[in-house]
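Quick note —
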Amino acid sequence: MHAGLNDNWKDRTEPFPLPDTPEGIIEKIGLFAQKKSLDVYAVGGYVRDRLLARPFSGEIDFSVVGDAPQFAKDLAQEWALKSNVQIYKNFGTARVQVGKIQLEFATSRRESYRENSRNPITEPAPFDEDLQRRDFTINALAVDVNRTDEIIDHFDGLSDLENRILRTPLDPVRTFDDDPLRILRAIRFAAKLDFTIEEKTWEALSRYRDRLTIVARERINGEFFKILETNPPSHGLRLLYDSGVLSVIFPEIANLQGVEQKGMYHHKDVLFHSLKVLDHLAEKTDRADLRFAALVHDIGKPRTKHFDSKTGWSFHGHEHVGERIIKKFAKKYKLPIDFVEKTSRLVRLHMRPINLQVEGVTDSAVRRLIVQAGDQIDDLLMMCRADITSGNKQRVKTYLSSFDRMVEHMASVEKRDELKRFQSPIRGDEIMKRTGLKEGPRVGLIKALIEEAILDGYIEFTWEGADSIFDETVEKVQKMEDDEVYKQVRSIMRYRSEGMDERAATKDIHQHIRKS
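Predicted structure written out below.
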């Protein structure tokens, strides 16, 4: 006699035979629900997307009229999936992973909210009440796992799907006042599905936008970056701006909007220019980090705007001001430090490729840009190409042609010099060993001056090239006073950081090296 599955599932060495399609999994869950005498419903995104013929997202949500965590635990045991189960008893939810498909089980419940919190007080409730708490009618559609040919629709969600309308099941004022994160979800779904937000729903989300201040910043960021991932991303961003929500969650971005005119001079609306750049970039990549960089690349312009009666409007240094603004985002908006560092670098350097075309695409300038951008050089070039916008199609064509020639030049220099992870062939350890110097600013300056000579093309990017000027460089640095050494090091670091080509701080030294 063989032992039953419930007695020996821990000892199984072969995978339990389970379907790998959502339909097959729902059918199996239906059979198990019957065995447990429980009502279970597939609800929300899976049902909505199936009706819209959208690709399967990989997730299915279920509402269980009963103890959902226990149901999930029993299901996992039945299917030999114990290691793939996460139980959240306090929330009445559980997550089960079946192959590549994620199943979410929640106890059918009602919710009530306190004024200054979006964390609901929950208690078990009939399924009809569970559907009422859903955010939008199109997400309140459900199917009984044992009668999947019948759509449960208590709020005309099918009609809203057909008419491409986003609407709340209950009073939208209550919906957004109770859980203001749904304001961002409304905009995300409208952008993702290309739906129109129903008038009363739109009025309520605009009216209650300040309620977003009670939402954890990480949750806001999650929804915002999902909006950035929609196509075209400008659609969702325009909804954020028009509703006033953008001013609440990212006021620095909202402040880009506006056109000021004096006499015959006016400047582009920076926000809508940025949205155009964002859409151009989105045609090439779905990476949310790059899309964010494109959105904020001109974020320093409002603070640097200057009018001259002879030349019109200018925004000198906006890339450096923008870099400083973005660097504050890590703490202010709880964004990852690495993400902020990479974004701020792209903002700081976004003018350099364009300026190269004006200044002249020299090998030296190309080397410096490649070193400054490092492994982000391809991202920078992609963003800068997207930044070429104009109502004059011929002008855009000319600029793009010039830009592409510059990129070809950069590719040839980069391939020749291997500069992405550039540093002096003679490292600090060797400098200390050969000179007897201790680690400090003098060693750093010797190394930096060798690097400058390579970047300027005075010597080859080889150990032999570096060695050819080593003695002269050491001699020059050794004769400097400490204050001068510190000054030189700071100057070089600043020039590198700011992407400038004029290097007055090193000019005399390079002349000395060349004469030697």
